[in-house]
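Quick check before the chapter quiz. The format below is the same one you will see on the exam, so make sure you can read both the input and the output lines.
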Amino acid sequence: MTRPIVQMRRLPHGEGLPLPEPQTEGAAGMDLTAALPEDAPFTLAPGERSAVATGLEMAIPRGYEGQVRPRSGLALKQGLTVLNAPGTIDSDYRGEVKVILVNLGREAVTIRRGDRIAQLVVAPITIPHIQLVEELNETKRGMGGFGSTGV
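Here is the expected output.
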């Protein structure tokens, strides 16, 4: 399997933080950490959201996207998740990667420097050609919407 190369640049406020890397042999994602000042943690109250700096810029290869996804443990234990999950890092974006976190829990959550706040998955994309037609082919489901196939 060929692995794409993702170039990353560490910004000054990201110095000393680990670069994203898989934590296990079968991991699909790599942890992104909070690049906050050591002396300036912040707290997200229930219902609050914030863009959290990672201290990283990256060049995702053309034909791929970076997907910023929630960490399941944070979501389950603290109600902390990525608001626009999955967030997309396009191959032509070169700014700092920030994670939009929202606290859906009942308790305030404090974020500190180096906390693992999200995971990054790099995945191939397909850009389709759009073809405008007068009719679409019939299917068994048809126009059945949310919940139409049962539980």
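If your answer matched, good. Residues 67 and 88 are 5 Å apart (CA to CA).
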